Amino acid sequence: MRKAVFLDRDGTLNSDEGHYYIYRAEDFVLNEGVIAGLKILKKHHYLLIVVTNQGGVAKGIYSEADVEKVHEEMKRQLKLGGISIDGIYYCPHHDTVQSCDCRKPSPYMINQAITDFDLDAKQCFMIGDSDRDIEAAKRAGIRAFKIKKNNSIVEICKKIVEDED
Ligand SMILES: [Mg+2]
Ligand SMILES: [Zn+2]
Q1: Cα–Cα distance for residue pair 150/33, rounded to 1 Å
Q2: N or C: which end of the chain has fewer CB within 10 A?
Q3: According to UniProt, where does the site described as Contributes to substrate recognition lie (predicted)?
């Protein structure tokens, strides 16, 4: 079984400063410390899996094609830093339009990835900036760390690998 770190997207990997939703590639800016932090995790053989709520799709603010474009941009920027993402899961729904099983704080996306990647939940972590991220992780039975919106994840990444050593 493998191990992974689950990563929220907006407010964790990239800045959502000044935006309610990020749906244009040009608005995608990695937060400070993301490359350094993810390098530490990769070095310790963690898979990196993004789990993100994109309720703006259900609200008609942007399309799934826009989400894909932002994800291409995310992967491009991370690749420049030598980082590859192993999986991306997103929920395009929103409670105000139609309820669903996948939107965080549901553990659905995390559980799906645990199955898809044959992960050992005991060796998995979540990093996010919202209570919803933490709640989803708890419900999936994995440990979670909350950062302050758009703050560096480096210290948490160090902590994750230290706990293991
Ligand atoms: Mg967030
Ligand atoms: Zn959903």
Answers
A1: 10
A2: C
A3: 103
% the chain with pLDDT above 70: 99
Could you confirm whether 10 is annotated as catalytic?
yes
Are 126 and 3 within 8 A, CB to CB?
A: no
Run of H or E residues at 53: strand 47-53
Which of 8, 16, 66, 133 is flagged as catalytic?
8
What's the gap in Å between 115 CA and the centre of ligand 1? 23
Q: Which fold has domain 8-164?
A: Rossmann fold (3.40.50)
Q: What is the pLDDT of residues 15-32, one digit of tens each?
A: 999 999 999 999 999 999
Helix (H) or strand (E) holding 49: strand 47-53
Report residue 105's pLDDT band, with 50, 70 and 90 as the boundaries: very high
Question: To the nearest whole number, what is the mean pLDDT of the chain?
Answer: 97
Ligand 2 centre to CA of 52 (Å) is 10
- Whether the Cβ atoms of residue 47 and residue 2 lie closer than 8 Å to each other: yes
7 has which bridge partners? 50, 127
66 is catalytic: no
> Is the pTM of the predicted complex or chain greater than 0.85?
yes
